[in-house]
Write a structure and sequence with these properties.
The complex is a heterotrimer.
Chain A (H helix, E strand, L loop, with lengths): L28 H23 L2 H23 L10 H11 L7 H17 L11 H12 L1 H6 L20 H8 L1 H8 L7 H8 L11 H13 L6 H14 L5 H6 L3 H8 L10 H21 L6 H18 L13
Chain B lengths: L17 H49 L6 E10 L4 E4 L3 E5 L5 E6 L6 H11 L2 E12 L2 E12 L4 E9 L4 E8 L13 H4 L7 H5 L3 E2 L5 H9 L5 H14 L3 E2 L5 H25 L4
Parallel strand pairs in B: 9-10
Antiparallel strand pairs in B: 1-2, 1-5, 2-3, 3-4, 5-6, 6-7, 7-8
Chain C lengths: L7 H7 L14 H6 L4 H24 L9 H23 L1 H13 L4 H11 L4 H31 L1 E2 L2 E2 L12 H21 L13
Antiparallel strand pairs in C: 1-2
Helix pairs in contact in C: 1-7, 3-4, 3-5, 3-6, 3-7, 4-5, 4-6, 6-7, 7-8
Classes of the chains: A mainly alpha, B alpha+beta, C mainly alpha.
Chain lengths: 337, 285, 211
């Protein structure tokens, strides 16, 4: 991984030094990225299974937008295409996963295009972005299409491939924020024992964004990446620790922990090499910060879901974290600090 | 990688000597005096014009809100509060003082021929009090056409001053924003027809309990709201009464829920207070 | 520092592109972000700034021999404040409808970096007529910047131009929000830099511009 670690300004000639942990399996960036894309497929398949064919269209649209943006910048910089490294496709998929399943696909294309050009392109391309590309795309779309982004939810139905035009229900977290725990529960689960609703949340039978509904499918992909050594557990565990702490202040701690994009964000977005710290200590601080911020935004902020902005805010701190937690020099043989 | 540690600012100039200080002080004083003289001179020309503009605009707004015909007139009633919290009202003809229970206690005629400012001073001299608000009555002959109440609320940024116009049966005729410091394009949209006209035509009771919602404004209703203004309310209302009945909420401005809610709450409070006070004053007017 | 000023045509035109105060000298970015939500707002403020810039530069140049260098910054500020207040009073008295829209921003012109920077860098050292032309050039450049940014944001963010709706939806509402303002300024700046590179020049090094 030549370009990971020290995020910073665009400079073609300087050498990027970074400190471990490096992936030592000898894999290239593109190989890793395509494995990440593979790991995202279970969640996409589940989404198509319960929400119909629209999530697939949205995902394709978002990927198209990202690919277009990436290609534009390759053209402007007069270099061979970088599409084969899989990062544009990955950003497109992740962006799509944060969108409501009833959204018009063209909005996703615009979002993907803006995300790649303004987050990655203008900063210099792969390895130079400060912020997570997919999340900036989502933030921009949230600002540009506020009504569509908050109302186009679809109630999940197994095997219903062509659902009617999106019915505007609300997500459990949104109802939790406005009307409280009982109402949130009633919105997607009727009857059963005290903790049975957790099973529905874990499986993914509730309204939500394309990629966030099924905790199990996310875990499936995450397990694959963990086994291949592509991601480590520091960041995700720290995020849940931080969120768990803050959610004790709420009326429904378990609903918080099992809901929403926390799982998607913790395993796939916060662990992005370019925008996260490179040392375990830094990663723990990063993760705890994200968890705390997510909880605070959910409970006291204006949005029902906070993981998106929490990660973006902590992205800003990453260079500082890398600086503070730099491992000490082992030898003094001419290695510059 | 690390910043400039221990950098010292270069070339610190020596502190000014006594003579220098005197020169500096004199220089600045002269500049300030000249500027003050210029500005003061210009002020004496422009301030009266500015006030005249303000008054003219206000009068035009009031006449439009109440649809006062040429033969009608607008009367201003100012409200003062004494130190022991009794209300005092200055109408065009009388200065009326109320006691703690709101019963009329004193009434004296206002001297003729005083301009606005002098009337205000006279009123506060006769009954030591401070100015707290005002409202207007539109009249034709002795018949009351309607009321316009001035209200203030705190918006997203600073105070928002507005008029609420009502007819004799306490139905709203409209809301006009007079002053605000909200962001253009966001909170600043409260002056636009598609927002402020959402109050017009509703009864005071309906407005009292109305909710502000974040739902989007339907295109047809928006077009209808935009047409009120060029079309006076008396012509607009019969055409759109049914639509008004279907939209029993205030649609907030996209991205400015706080400003929208602030204006709504301000209007509600203003109406509530005014209705209370009008009861007491009806006889006196 | 050489005192022979550039030619009149250079003075009048360099503020438009090569030394555009907003997009090349990176001055007065606050109003560029805040007031450009619509073309009309940008136009009004641009015109107001234009007048204040010309008058302030002229005044600073006329009195340059009498201004004690040790207190030049407060004196420049007073000069700008003087003209801003004059503008404010004249607008309030004789152009009330314009004043309603722009009044709030006219008062803020005192703090704009561009005006005091031109007084310090140019008017303080040059004769009256060139200083006036410099003020005109920079004022026009600022006006152009406001119009460009305002047009971009209003067209793409609100679907309208000068208040007249061109399309009946909002293409990208993000542009009307403050974040969009920052992106707009950055993008147009990049555009100016790119055009400059195409013309064979290097990128500018520091803000403030030439004397």
């Amino acid at each position: 991984m030549a370009n990971s670690g020290v995020g910073g300004g665009p400079s073609a000639g300087t050498l990027h030094l970074s400190y471990g942990p490096h992936v030592r399996s000898g894999e290239s960036t593109s190989s890793i990225m395509w494995q990440v894309n593979l790991a995202l497929l279970p969640a996409l398949i589940w989404a198509v299974g319960v929400f119909g064919v629209r999530p697939l269209l949205i995902t394709l649209a978002a990927v198209l937008g990202c690919v277009a943006g990436e290609q534009l910048f390759c053209l402007l910089q007069k270099r061979r295409t970088t599409l084969t490294d899989g990062t544009a496709v990955c950003s497109g998929m992740l962006l799509a996963f944060t969108l409501p399943p009833g959204l018009s696909p063209w909005m996703a294309t615009i979002g993907g295009f803006l995300a790649i050009t303004l987050t990655k392109g203008v900063f210099g391309g792969l390895g130079h972005n400060i912020f997570n590309v997919a999340l900036i795309g989502r933030a921009m779309m949230m600002a540009s299409f506020p009504v569509a982004m908050t109302t186009k939810w679809i109630p999940p139905q197994l095997g219903n491939f062509f659902p009617p035009d999106a019915l505007t229900t609300a997500t459990p977290l949104a109802i939790l924020k406005e009307k409280g725990f009982e109402a949130a529960l009633a919105s997607f689960y009727q009857g059963g024992g005290e903790y049975d609703y957790l099973w529905r949340l874990a499986l993914g039978l509730r309204p939500g964004s394309i990629g966030e509904v099924s905790v199990l499918c996310i875990l499936l992909g995450a397990a694959f990446l963990l086994l291949r050594g592509i991601i480590k557990l520091w960041i995700p565990l720290s995020i849940f620790a931080g969120l768990g702490l803050v959610s004790l202040l709420s009326t429904a701690p378990l609903l918080h922990l099992f809901s929403g994009g926390v799982w998607l964000g913790a395993f796939f977005m916060a662990t992005d090499y370019v925008t996260s710290p490179s040392t375990p200590k830094g990663q723990i601080v990063f993760g705890v910060g994200i968890g705390l911020l997510t909880g605070l935004i959910r409970l006291y902020g204006g949005y029902p879901e906070g993981i998106c902005y929490a990660i973006l805010l902590m992205n800003i701190v990453v260079p500082a974290l890398n600086d503070w937690f730099r491992p000490k020099r082992v030898s003094t043989m001419g290695v510059p600090s | 990688m690390s910043g400039c540690q221990g950098c010292k600012p270069k070339n610190l100039s020596p502190p000014p000597s006594g003579r220098d200080l005197v020169k500096i002080t004199i220089g600045l004083t002269i500049v300030c005096l000249i500027s003050a003289a210029l500005l003061g001179g210009l002020y004496s020309f422009t301030e009266p014009a500015k006030l005249r503009n303000g008054k003219a605009r206000e009068a035009a707004t009031l006449r439009a809100l109440l649809e006062v015909p040429e033969t009608g007139r607008i009367e201003e009633i100012r409200r003062y509060l004494t130190n022991d919290l009794r209300a005092v009202y200055l109408t065009p003809k009388f200065l009326i003082g109320l006691d703690e229970n709101g019963i009329e206690k004193t009434r004296e005629p206002v001297p003729e021929g005083l301009d606005e400012q002098k009337r205000d001073e006279w009123a506060r001299a006769r009954q030591p009090s401070r100015y707290v608000g005002r409202f207007f009555v539109g009249k034709q002959g002795e018949q009351v056409l309607g009321y316009v109440v001035e209200g203030v609320t705190t918006g997203y940024k600073a105070k928002v001053r507005f008029f609420v116009a009502m007819d004799g049966q306490m139905n709203l005729r409209g809301v006009e924003i007079l002053e605000h410091e909200e962001d253009p394009g966001l909170g600043g949209e409260i002056v636009k027809r598609y927002f402020k006209n959402q109050f017009a035509g509703r009864s005071a009771d309906e407005v009292q309990g109305i909710q502000v919602v974040k739902d989007p404004l339907v295109a047809e209703w928006k077009a209808a709201l935009e047409s009120l203004g060029p079309t006076p309310l008396s012509a607009w209302l019969p055409q759109h009464r049914e639509e008004l009945g279907r939209h029993k909420v205030i649609y907030a401005i996209t991205g400015s829920t706080i400003s929208s809610q602030a204006v709504t709450t301000g209007v509600q409070k203003t109406i509530a207070n005014f209705r209370k006070r009008l009861e007491l004053l009806k006889g006196a007017l | 520092m050489s005192v022979t000023p550039p030619t009149v045509s250079v003075l009048l035109t360099r503020g438009l592109f090569s030394e555009n105060p907003v997009f090349r000298l990176a001055l007065s970015l606050c109003p560029a972000v805040a007031v450009t939500t619509a073309v009309e707002n940008g136009l009004m403020l641009g015109i107001a700034v234009f007048f204040v810039q010309v008058l302030s530069s002229m005044t600073a140049s006329i009195f340059k021999k009498w201004i004690n260098p040790k207190i030049r910054i407060p004196v420049y500020t007073i000069i700008i404040a003087l003209w801003v207040t004059v503008m404010d009073m004249l607008l309030a008295a004789y152009f009330p409808s314009t004043y309603e829209k722009v009044g709030l921003y006219v008062k803020l012109i005192v703090a704009f970096a561009i005006i005091i920077s031109r007084m310090e860098l140019f008017a303080a050292k040059n004769p009256v007529l060139p200083s006036t032309f410099d003020g005109v050039g920079m004022g026009l450049g600022f006006l152009l910047a406001m119009l460009l940014a305002g047009a971009f944001r209003e067209l793409l963010g609100n679907g309208s131009f000068f208040g007249y709706p061109l399309v009946h939806f909002q293409p990208l509402f993000l542009l009307v929000l403050p974040a969009g303002g920052f992106f707009t300024i950055g993008l147009i700046m990049a555009l100016f830099n790119w055009v400059d590179l195409l013309r064979g020049n290097t990128l500018p090094k520091a803000s403030g511009g030439h004397g």
